[in-house]
């Protein structure tokens, strides 16, 4: 018997016979089912991604030629400001929350999130925040001081747009704080009886680290923005040098959030990759603990590196050195993850389907972003390339190559579970190929542009950069085109795709032990762990596995959370073989 | 594990090392290194390129190799042999990156020291003016400042004030909104930049220039001669010190060929020092978003022989006198900014097209 069969037979009794069917209307209501909310998150953020993508292509269209000939300078600045704000606050961050919403309760065998209503509130802050932000463009006065919104520039470019920007970012930040509280409590308190933290799937570890980081850093951004709005509307001088304020203080506060934010944007997708690669390589994840703890290490170190965004803005020499060293050290836990993924693939039986291709693409592109990241940490070199296209290249390799490829890997992987139907593999592969080529065409040349002297956030540039910019723009168009097969595939498969069954990938984590799509409360009872989350290839005869029946656990639950019965994890199913009996 | 035979590993290792070493030295990605400091920074970059190339080829190689070699065969639905981890291997791949980043940190530290990052004189003191405390919020900001304030006067202030009141620049700037910042050093704090290299520490620089950034131009004042220019001319081989501040919003002084960049912040003074060595005409670029015309805010940076520099300086001294008289005579409000500014556009680093577009929008 394979591990997947063992896991399944142990959980037959809790399987809801009926898959959860939903009406389309459910998705437009204040529904509190975590799966509905998850789809709401994913679809909404994807729409914002398309809007942000259109803006990106408008930016690139302007940059196709050295002259300012497509939009005015003011509109150009608004476009890249909104592009970045949308991509960060309305796509990458909430898309991570969307996956977490769907997966966390299922993966830990819970019926829902700890606070279902809070969960819905967190989601319903996003559409107004996003619509507000985009409306400022329609009103003709959108924020145009960059997504960093540095004063004094942000204090003089137009109050309406800047004010709207502040309010919508505050709304989106609040949403992510509420989400983080929910994920933390759910992960710590709602695990199925007998699941210890070291038996959780790695995505859960990643969300644990992400949520902790969100809780610590986001309030500081809120503080910075509130003070900025005082300067803007009430004439105070926290950051306004004319009144004796200090613009550099804003930068410290801003980056205290916004640097950790890049880990908030990438950690969930590290988690997704750690789920996708072992399933499709048919091998246990290599170094479970190393990956789990490296997430925590990244989230801790992420809090003490913010000033590497300020190497040229005037901080004392010794501080620059401090932030250089802490930044460099992050490369170590990150490297551990990358090598562990490679170790997982090595010697596997890899199914090269769309999910796995996007996961491989993720690793391949993220490594480029990671290498340029270490280079940027080196102060003398960063002084040269700070605020140039080298940085634009770096951040897109991380956020696009990393986060977006991670999202797609996740969608192709969990789509059967979310919708009950399979996606079309052929179009998935076309999607991947177009996107991978487009991505490199668009962003690889930017490294050279930055090194040679092209600064960022400009609508006009030196004619000597024209050829490379043209290549970048063509890559950007290809990226836009690459979304088309995905959108059609996702909609078509939802309606007509072949039925997926409960566990099309023969995966071991608990979300695959219920029907697809899962019924309202996920499981009829409490799922049990008959195998570890990554026990691929560890075929043991069933007799060897002491599978507790689901109903044997019921008294334990009745006994309450402190009960010894409940607290004891099953030593047979530790994720790490050394921990097994 | 299924590792290729040791000979293969060795051969691949050698080829990988040679490729990285070659590419690290021959990437051709950087512009001319026009100063001693730039050469040092390039050395660091080349090293990082070497290591980066090695890692890049290694990881992409493993990915491609694994994707082909370990592909599932048609009809094979079994799992692969389970490998849960390998402690020595994990220690190895934790240790190698750790050693690399420690090495890079030390190297960067050394370069940073050589180019003058630790010069204590680049962070001097100035009192915070009384008025600074009047505004709500200012006191909090002041206590959060990381460097002591400076007493040095800002020789640039008068000249930049003149430029600020110029109706032509004013129309491109956010003129009516930007509260102008006067006498930066009085209220400000010094922003440490890149100071003198250890060899030059404590010495008076060969040439001092005051730099002011304003939307959307650079103004260079040579305090020894009183010359005000819109291009930065420096003699080769002499150490140059720039004292910089901004009048309105944050700008950043960047000359790619010097590999030097420093934010120019209103309310603060920042300093950089460098020794240009290769003659030529380069560009000063504003690298910090400073408004719609940010992309147009650049001007010439000219490294010339000391003789040519002296000649230029003399010409400027004559011209400056003339210009000032002319400016006073011409500063009439009834002229359009374009008309008024046309004689200066080239000098100010504002392209005529910029002005043109401005008045047709
Ligand atoms: C369709 C693909 C994309 C294209 C063609 C694109 C293009 C660009 C360009 C050209 C810029 C520089 C604008 C300038 O400096 O004037 C930029 C900035 C930026 N992009 Fe993208 N981008 C894309 C996708 C993304 C994604 C997926 C993210 C994810 C988070 C993202 C985040 C950012 C950020 C944070 C900035 C910095 C903006 C700033 O400097 O204020 N972009 N993008
Ligand atoms: Cu500027
Ligand atoms: Cu600028």
From TrEMBL, chain A:
<keyword id="KW-0408">Iron</keyword>
<keyword id="KW-1133">Transmembrane helix</keyword>
<feature type="transmembrane region" description="Helical">
    <location>
        <begin position="426"/>
        <end position="446"/>
    </location>
</feature>
<keyword id="KW-0472">Membrane</keyword>
<feature type="transmembrane region" description="Helical">
    <location>
        <begin position="202"/>
        <end position="234"/>
    </location>
</feature>
<dbReference type="GO" id="GO:0046872">
    <property type="term" value="F:metal ion binding"/>
</dbReference>
<dbReference type="GO" id="GO:0004129">
    <property type="term" value="F:cytochrome-c oxidase activity"/>
</dbReference>
<feature type="transmembrane region" description="Helical">
    <location>
        <begin position="321"/>
        <end position="343"/>
    </location>
</feature>
<feature type="transmembrane region" description="Helical">
    <location>
        <begin position="120"/>
        <end position="143"/>
    </location>
</feature>
<feature type="transmembrane region" description="Helical">
    <location>
        <begin position="290"/>
        <end position="309"/>
    </location>
</feature>
<dbReference type="InterPro" id="IPR014241">
    <property type="entry name" value="Cyt_c_oxidase_su1_bac"/>
</dbReference>
<dbReference type="InterPro" id="IPR023615">
    <property type="entry name" value="Cyt_c_Oxase_su1_BS"/>
</dbReference>
<dbReference type="InterPro" id="IPR023616">
    <property type="entry name" value="Cyt_c_oxase-like_su1_dom"/>
</dbReference>
<keyword id="KW-0186">Copper</keyword>
<comment type="pathway">
    <text>Energy metabolism; oxidative phosphorylation.</text>
</comment>
<keyword id="KW-0813">Transport</keyword>
<feature type="transmembrane region" description="Helical">
    <location>
        <begin position="79"/>
        <end position="108"/>
    </location>
</feature>
<feature type="transmembrane region" description="Helical">
    <location>
        <begin position="254"/>
        <end position="278"/>
    </location>
</feature>
<dbReference type="GO" id="GO:0022904">
    <property type="term" value="P:respiratory electron transport chain"/>
</dbReference>
<dbReference type="InterPro" id="IPR036927">
    <property type="entry name" value="Cyt_c_oxase-like_su1_sf"/>
</dbReference>
<feature type="transmembrane region" description="Helical">
    <location>
        <begin position="391"/>
        <end position="414"/>
    </location>
</feature>
<keyword id="KW-0249">Electron transport</keyword>
UniProtKB/TrEMBL annotation, chain B:
<keyword id="KW-0472">Membrane</keyword>
<dbReference type="Pfam" id="PF00116">
    <property type="entry name" value="COX2"/>
</dbReference>
<comment type="function">
    <text>Subunits I and II form the functional core of the enzyme complex. Electrons originating in cytochrome c are transferred via heme a and Cu(A) to the binuclear center formed by heme a3 and Cu(B).</text>
</comment>
<keyword id="KW-0249">Electron transport</keyword>
<dbReference type="InterPro" id="IPR011759">
    <property type="entry name" value="Cyt_c_oxidase_su2_TM_dom"/>
</dbReference>
<dbReference type="InterPro" id="IPR036257">
    <property type="entry name" value="Cyt_c_oxidase_su2_TM_sf"/>
</dbReference>
<keyword id="KW-0479">Metal-binding</keyword>
<feature type="transmembrane region" description="Helical">
    <location>
        <begin position="89"/>
        <end position="109"/>
    </location>
</feature>
<dbReference type="InterPro" id="IPR045187">
    <property type="entry name" value="CcO_II"/>
</dbReference>
<keyword id="KW-1133">Transmembrane helix</keyword>
<keyword id="KW-0813">Transport</keyword>
<dbReference type="InterPro" id="IPR008972">
    <property type="entry name" value="Cupredoxin"/>
</dbReference>
<keyword id="KW-1278">Translocase</keyword>
<feature type="transmembrane region" description="Helical">
    <location>
        <begin position="44"/>
        <end position="68"/>
    </location>
</feature>
<dbReference type="GO" id="GO:0005507">
    <property type="term" value="F:copper ion binding"/>
</dbReference>
<dbReference type="Pfam" id="PF02790">
    <property type="entry name" value="COX2_TM"/>
</dbReference>
<dbReference type="GO" id="GO:0005886">
    <property type="term" value="C:plasma membrane"/>
</dbReference>
<keyword id="KW-0679">Respiratory chain</keyword>
<dbReference type="InterPro" id="IPR002429">
    <property type="entry name" value="CcO_II-like_C"/>
</dbReference>
<dbReference type="GO" id="GO:0042773">
    <property type="term" value="P:ATP synthesis coupled electron transport"/>
</dbReference>
<keyword id="KW-0812">Transmembrane</keyword>
<feature type="domain" description="Cytochrome oxidase subunit II transmembrane region profile">
    <location>
        <begin position="21"/>
        <end position="119"/>
    </location>
</feature>
């Amino acid at each position: 018997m394979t591990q997947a069969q063992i896991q399944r037979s142990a959980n037959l009794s809790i399987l809801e016979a009926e898959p959860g069917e939903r009406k389309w209307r459910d998705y437009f209501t204040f529904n509190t089912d975590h799966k509905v909310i998850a789809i709401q998150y994913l679809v909404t953020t994807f729409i914002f991604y398309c809007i942000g993508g259109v803006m990106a292509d408008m930016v690139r269209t302007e940059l196709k030629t050295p002259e300012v000939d497509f939009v005015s300078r003011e509109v150009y600045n608004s476009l890249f400001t909104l592009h970045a704000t949308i991509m960060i606050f309305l796509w990458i961050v909430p898309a991570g929350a969307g996956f977490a919403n769907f997966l966390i309760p299922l993966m830990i065998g819970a019926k829902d999130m700890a606070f279902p209503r809070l969960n819905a509130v967190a989601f319903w802050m996003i559409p107004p925040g996003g619509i507000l932000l985009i409306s400022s463009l329609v009103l003709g006065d959108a924020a145009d001081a960059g997504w960093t919104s540095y004063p004094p520039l942000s204090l003089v470019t137009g109050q309406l747009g800047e004010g709207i920007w502040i309010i919508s970012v505050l709304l989106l930040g609040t949403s992510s704080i509420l989400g983080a509280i929910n994920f933390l409590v759910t992960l710590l308190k709602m695990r199925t009886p007998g699941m210890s933290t070291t038996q959780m799937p790695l995505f859960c570890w990643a969300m644990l680290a992400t949520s902790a980081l969100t809780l610590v850093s986001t309030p500081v951004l809120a503080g910075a923005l509130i003070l900025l709005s005082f300067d803007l509307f009430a004439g105070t001088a926290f950051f306004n040098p004319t009144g004796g304020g200090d613009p550099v203080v804003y930068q410290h506060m801003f980056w205290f959030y916004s640097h950790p934010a890049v880990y908030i944007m990438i950690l969930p997708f590290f988690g997704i990759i750690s789920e996708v690669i072992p399933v499709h390589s048919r091998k246990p994840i290599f170094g479970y603990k190393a990956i789990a703890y490296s997430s925590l290490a990244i989230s801790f170190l992420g809090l003490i590196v913010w000033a590497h965004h300020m190497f040229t803005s005037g901080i004392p020499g010794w501080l620059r050195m401090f932030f250089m060293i802490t930044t460099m050290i992050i490369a170590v836990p990150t490297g551990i993850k990358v090598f562990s993924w490679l170790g997982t693939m090595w010697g596997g039986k890899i199914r090269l389907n769309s999910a796995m291709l996007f996961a491989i693409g993720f690793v391949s592109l993220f490594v480029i972003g990671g290498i340029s990241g270490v280079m940027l940490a080196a102060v003398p070199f960063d002084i040269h390339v700070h605020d140039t296209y080298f940085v634009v290249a770096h951040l897109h390799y991380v956020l696009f190559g990393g986060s977006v490829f991670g999202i797609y890997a996740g969608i192709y992987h969990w789509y059967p579970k979310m919708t009950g139907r399979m996606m079309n593999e052929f179009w998935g592969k076309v999607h991947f190929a177009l996107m991978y080529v487009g991505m490199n065409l668009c962003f690889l040349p930017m490294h050279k542009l930055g090194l040679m002297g092209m600064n960022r956030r400009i609508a006009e540039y030196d004619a000597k950069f024209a050829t490379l910019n043209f290549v970048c723009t063509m890559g950007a168009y290809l990226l836009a085109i690459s979304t088309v097969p995905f959108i059609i595939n996702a909609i078509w498969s939802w309606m007509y795709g072949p039925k997926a069954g409960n566990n099309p990938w023969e995966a071991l984590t608990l979300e695959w032990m219920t029907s697809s799509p899962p019924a309202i409360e996920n499981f009829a009872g409490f799922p049990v762990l008959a195998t570890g989350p990554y026990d691929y290839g560890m075929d043991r005869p069933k007799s060897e596995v002491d599978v507790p029946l689901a109903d044997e656990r019921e008294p334990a639950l009745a006994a309450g959370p402190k009960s010894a019965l409940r607290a004891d994890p099953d030593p047979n199913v530790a994720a790490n073989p050394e921990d097994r009996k | 594990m299924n590792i290729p035979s040791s000979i293969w590993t060795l051969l691949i290792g050698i080829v990988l090392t040679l490729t990285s070493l070659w590419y690290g030295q021959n990437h051709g990605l950087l512009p001319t290194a026009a100063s001693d400091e730039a050469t040092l920074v390039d050395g660091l970059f080349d090293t990082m390129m070497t290591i980066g190339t090695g890692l890049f080829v290694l990881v992409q190689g493993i990915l491609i190799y694994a994707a082909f070699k370990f592909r599932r065969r048609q009809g094979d639905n079994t799992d692969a042999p389970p490998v849960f981890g390998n402690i020595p291997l994990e220690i190895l791949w934790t240790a190698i990156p750790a050693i690399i980043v420690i090495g890079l940190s030390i190297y960067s530290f050394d370069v940073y020291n050589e180019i003058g990052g630790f010069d204590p004189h680049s962070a001097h003191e100035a009192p915070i003016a009384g008025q600074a405390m009047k505004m709500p919020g200012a006191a909090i900001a002041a206590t959060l400042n990381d460097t002591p304030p400076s007493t040095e006067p800002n020789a640039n202030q008068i000249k930049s004030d003149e430029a600020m009141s110029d109706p032509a620049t004013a129309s491109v700037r956010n003129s009516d909104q930007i509260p102008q910042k006067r006498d930066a050093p009085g209220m400000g704090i010094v922003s440490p930049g890149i100071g003198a290299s250890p060899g030059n520490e404590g010495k008076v620089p060969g040439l001092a220039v005051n730099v002011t950034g304003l939307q959307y131009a650079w103004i260079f004042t040579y305090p020894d001669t009183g010359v005000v220019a819109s291009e930065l001319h420096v003699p080769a081989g002499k150490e140059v010190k720039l004292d910089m501040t901004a009048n309105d919003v944050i700008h950043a002084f960047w000359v790619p060929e010097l590999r030097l960049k420093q934010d120019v912040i209103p309310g603060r003074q920042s300093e950089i020092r460098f020794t240009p060595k290769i003659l030529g005409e380069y560009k000063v670029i504003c690298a910090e978003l400073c408004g719609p015309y940010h992309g147009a805010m650049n001007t010439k940076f000219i490294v010339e022989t000391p003789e040519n520099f002296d000649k230029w300086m003399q010409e400027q001294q004559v011209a400056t006198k003339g210009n000032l008289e002319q400016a006073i005579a011409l500063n009439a409000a009834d002229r359009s900014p374009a008309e008024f500014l046309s004689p200066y556009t080239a000098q100010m680093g504002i392209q005529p097209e910029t002005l043109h577009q401005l008045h047709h929008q």
